C-alpha cells in the first residue's frame, strides 16, 4: 500500500512512518519489525513524499485501510494525503461503483448527454408536498430527483411515508411521459438503519439512494454497493469539509474523486466553484478528472457539482465540465416564474442540446 502525502516539515516523515504502522520509537523495534512492518519512504521531492506499507498492515478490512491511511496522523497538523496507489492494494478490498457512468447511461437511456439532478426542499414540508414537487420535476424531465440531505426521519415527513409518496409520484410521472426520471431517497442513519432504509428504497421502487458517508460510515456505503440488489449510490459531502483543508487531511480530488469512487459511489456530489462554498475551479476540475479517469479498472463515477448552481449559467458549466457530468441545481429551479415543471423542462432541453 503506497500513500502519497504533502508535509509541512521534514520531521513529519518519520512520524508518519511510525504512527501509521507500529506507534513505537525506532530504537525499540526488533529488526524484522523495522524491516517488514514500518512504512518505508519510496519517493521524496520537496514537501511531497510517498510511503509504502505492507498490505498485511491493512488486514483485508476497509476500516483498517482508513486507519493506516489517516489514523493517528489525523491528530497532527500540516499533513495532507494526495493519493494512493490503488493497484498495489488487494484486488478484493474495494469494488468501486456498481454502475458508474456507462451503467447509468444504459439505465437512463441517455447515451451522450449530461445528466440533471435536483433536490427536494425544504425541510418541514409534508410527504404529499414533496411528492407533488417530485412529480413536477419528473414531468419536466429531470433525471435524478433526490432528497435534500437535511431530510431524514423527521416528524414533518417520516422517511417511509416520504419514500413511498415520492417514489410513486416519480414512477407515475414516468408512466405518463415515457421518461426514466429517478427518485433518490436520502437513507443516511446509524449503520443498521441505513441498511434497512436501503431495503425499503428497493421495495418502494426508488431508482437510486443518497448516502452521506461521513455521517454514517464509509464502509457502510461500500457494503451497500456490493449488495446483490444494489442501487446506484449518490455520495453527499456533509460533515466532510474538515477533511479537505488546504494543508491538512485529503486533497479534494482524492477524497471525493478517488476514495468515494473506490467505496462504491456512482455519483460524487461536491461544491461547485462560484456557489455557496466556492471551491477553486482547479479543485473542481481535478475532482472531475479523478472521478472519471483510469483507476484500478473501476467504472468512472459521475462528478456532480452543486451547492448553488444557477439555471442562467448552467450552459457555461456544461461547456467547462463536459457531458459526463451530473449537474445538481436546487434553489434556482424553485425560483422559476412558471413553476417547477417549466424549470425542469428548461433544464432538460439544455441537456439534450448538449448531446
List the helices and strands and how they pair.
Blueprint: E1 2-7, H1 12-19, H2 31-36, E2 40-45, E3 48-52, H3 62-70, E4 79-84, H4 100-108, E5 115-120, H5 127-140, E6 144-147, H6 159-177, E7 182-184, H7 191-204, E8 209-211, H8 218-225, E9 233-235, E10 249-250, H9 252-262, E11 267-271, H10 281-292, E12 302-306, H11 314-321, E13 326-328, H12 331-334, H13 340-353
Parallel strand pairs: 4-10, 5-6, 5-13, 6-7, 8-9, 9-11, 11-12
Antiparallel strand pairs: 1-3, 1-4, 2-3
Main attributes of the structure:
355 residues, four-stranded parallel β-sheet, 13 helices, 38% helix
In short:
The protein has 13 helices and 13 strands. It has helices at 12-19, 31-36, 62-70, 100-108, 127-140, 159-177, 191-204, 218-225, 252-262, 281-292, 314-321, 331-334, 340-353; strands spanning 2-7, 40-45, 48-52, 79-84, 115-120, 144-147, 182-184, 209-211, 233-235, 249-250, 267-271, 302-306, 326-328.
Amino acid at each position: 500500500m503506497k500513500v502519497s502525502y504533502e508535509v509541512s516539515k521534514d520531521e513529519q516523515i518519520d512520524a508518519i512512518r511510525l504512527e501509521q504502522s507500529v506507534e513505537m520509537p525506532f530504537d525499540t523495534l526488533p529488526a524484522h519489525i523495522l524491516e517488514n512492518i514500518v512504512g518505508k519512504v519510496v519517493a521524496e521531492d520537496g514537501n511531497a513524499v510517498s510511503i509504502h506499507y505492507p498490505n498485511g498492515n491493512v488486514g483485508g478490512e476497509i476500516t483498517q485501510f482508513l486507519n493506516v491511511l489517516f489514523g493517528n496522523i489525523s491528530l497532527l497538523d500540516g499533513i495532507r494525503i494526495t493519493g494512493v496507489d490503488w493497484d498495489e492494494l488487494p484486488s478484493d478490498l474495494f469494488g468501486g461503483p456498481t454502475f458508474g457512468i456507462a451503467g447509468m447511461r444504459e439505465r437512463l437511456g441517455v447515451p451522450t448527454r449530461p445528466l440533471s439532478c435536483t433536490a427536494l426542499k425544504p425541510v418541514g414540508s409534508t410527504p404529499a408536498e414533496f411528492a407533488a414537487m417530485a412529480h413536477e420535476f419528473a414531468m419536466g424531465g429531470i433525471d435524478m430527483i433526490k432528497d435534500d440531505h437535511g431530510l431524514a426521519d423527521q416528524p414533518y415527513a417520516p422517511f417511509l411515508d416520504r419514500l413511498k409518496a415520492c417514489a410513486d409520484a416519480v414512477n407515475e410521472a414516468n408512466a405518463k411521459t415515457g421518461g426514466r426520471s429517478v427518485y433518490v431517497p436520502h437513507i443516511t442513519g446509524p449503520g443498521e438503519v441505513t441498511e434497512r432504509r436501503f431495503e425499503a428504497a428497493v421495495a418502494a421502487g426508488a431508482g437510486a439512494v443518497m448516502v452521506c458517508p461521513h455521517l454514517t460510515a464509509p464502509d457502510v456505503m461500500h457494503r451497500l454497493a456490493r449488495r446483490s440488489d444494489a442501487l446506484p449510490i449518490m455520495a453527499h459531502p456533509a460533515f466532510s469539509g474538515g477533511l479537505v483543508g488546504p494543508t491538512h487531511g485529503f486533497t479534494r480530488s482524492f477524497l471525493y474523486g478517488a476514495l468515494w469512487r473506490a467505496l462504491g459511489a456512482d455519483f460524487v456530489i461536491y461544491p461547485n466553484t462560484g456557489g455557496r462554498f466556492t471551491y477553486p475551479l482547479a479543485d473542481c476540475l481535478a475532482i472531475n478528472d479523478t472521478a472519471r479517469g483510469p483507476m484500478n479498472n473501476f467504472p468512472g463515477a459521475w462528478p456532480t457539482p452543486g451547492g448553488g448552481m444557477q439555471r442562467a449559467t448552467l450552459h457555461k458549466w456544461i461547456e467547462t465540465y463536459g457531458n459526463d457530468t451530473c449537474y445538481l441545481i436546487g434553489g434556482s429551479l424553485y425560483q422559476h416564474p412558471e413553476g417547477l415543471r417549466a424549470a425542469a423542462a428548461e433544464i432538460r432541453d439544455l441537456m439534450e442540446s448538449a448531446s
